[in-house]
């Protein structure tokens, strides 16, 4: 059983890739009552991440995937030290994939961008990569509101992304893959790097994917509205949700 957590439903984009490749048995926690993590202080994100991981461990998971880029950038090392099971983040896989390009742009939450996690990891693989970062804090609430194709979302994306010049663009938040169409229309013909997809590729390359194979059962928990989670979850996974459970961390 694999435990996956995110600040909201965005981590379901990672779940989608894991299910498609490994058909894993997954317990998913969306901490929707406290989203977004990206505008919180590092100490708060760390506290929330530990609480989320503790919840998943209490449910008997064999490994944890930190689907939140903000939590991955701030809390991944602490979680690996604190828990005895494997803990996987989404920063390292996307950074490794991006290192094959010469000019890379990173878009993410304010916390992810200010942490410098992506540039540090990318430079570890290839020092010569030119990197530009931009915070896009309104993307998460727009996605969580279901405004995927809305004119407002396009205008916000244009404000954030105009003038970007790169070979590859890291979608440094698990909500952002739902905005691929909008982002591509502004960024042009650049390679979009989806952290969830990159994670699955890395798991396959490192031969640790065996831990992830299962029967495809998905159990979801949220810290806020079950109905809202189900509504957005259908948007993210293209499937109906039944029996979403409410929990208090």
Structure description:
- This protein is of the alpha/beta class and 249 residues long.
- It has two domains: 2-89 and 199-246, Rossmann fold (3-Layer(aba) Sandwich), CATH 3.40.50.1860; 92-195, Rossmann fold (3-Layer(aba) Sandwich).
- It has eleven helices and ten strands.
- The protein has helices at residues 12-22, 42-58, 69-82, 91-98, 110-115, 117-125, 139-144, 151-161, 180-187, 195-205, 226-237; strands at residues 2-6, 26-30, 63-66, 87-88, 103-108, 130-135, 168-172, 191-194, 218-222, 245-246.
- The chain has a six-stranded parallel beta sheet. The chain has a four-stranded parallel beta sheet with strand order 6-5-7-8.
- α3 (69-82) links the parallel β3 and β4.
- α4 (91-98) crosses α10 and α8 (151-161) crosses α9 (180-187).
- The longest helix is centred in the N-terminal third of the chain and has 17 residues, at 42-58.
- The chain is globular, with a radius of gyration of 17 Å.
- The two termini are 20 Å apart.
- The mean pLDDT is 92.
Q: Which structural class should the secondary elements be placed in?
A: alpha/beta
Indicate the multimeric state.
single chain
What is the overall shape? Answer: globular
- pLDDT averaged over residues: 92
CATH class placement of the largest domain: Alpha Beta
Largest sheet: 6 strands, parallel
What's the helix-strand series? EHEHEHEHEHHEHHEHEHEHE
Total individual domains: 2
Distance between the termini: 20 Å
Low-confidence stretches: none
Q: Bin the strand percentage.
A: 15-25%
């Amino acid at each position: 059983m694999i435990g996956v957590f995110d600040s909201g439903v965005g981590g379901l984009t990672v779940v989608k890739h894991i299910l498609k490749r490994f058909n894993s048995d997954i317990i998913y926690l969306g901490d929707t009552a406290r989203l977004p993590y990206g505008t919180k202080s590092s100490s708060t994100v760390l506290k929330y991440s530990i609480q989320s991981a503790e919840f998943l461990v209490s449910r008997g998971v064999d490994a944890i995937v930190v689907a939140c880029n903000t939590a991955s950038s701030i809390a991944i090392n602490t979680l690996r030290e604190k828990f005895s099971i494997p803990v996987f983040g989404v920063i390292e896989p996307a950074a490794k994939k991006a290192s094959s390009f010469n000019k890379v742009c990173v878009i993410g939450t304010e916390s992810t961008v200010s942490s410098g996690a992506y540039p540090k990891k990318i430079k570890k693989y290839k020092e010569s990569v030119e990197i530009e970062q931009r915070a896009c804090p309104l993307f998460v609430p727009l996605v969580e509101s279901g405004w995927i194709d809305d004119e407002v979302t396009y205008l916000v994306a244009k404000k954030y992304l105009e003038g970007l010049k790169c070979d590859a663009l890291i979608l440094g938040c698990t909500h952002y893959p739902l905005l691929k169409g909008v982002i591509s229309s502004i960024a042009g013909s650049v390679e979009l790097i989806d952290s969830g997809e990159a994670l699955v590729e890395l798991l396959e390359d490192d031969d640790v994917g065996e831990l992830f194979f299962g029967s495809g059962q998905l159990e979801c928990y949220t810290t806020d509205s079950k109905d809202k989670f189900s509504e957005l979850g259908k948007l993210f996974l293209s499937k109906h949700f039944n029996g979403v459970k409410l929990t208090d961390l």
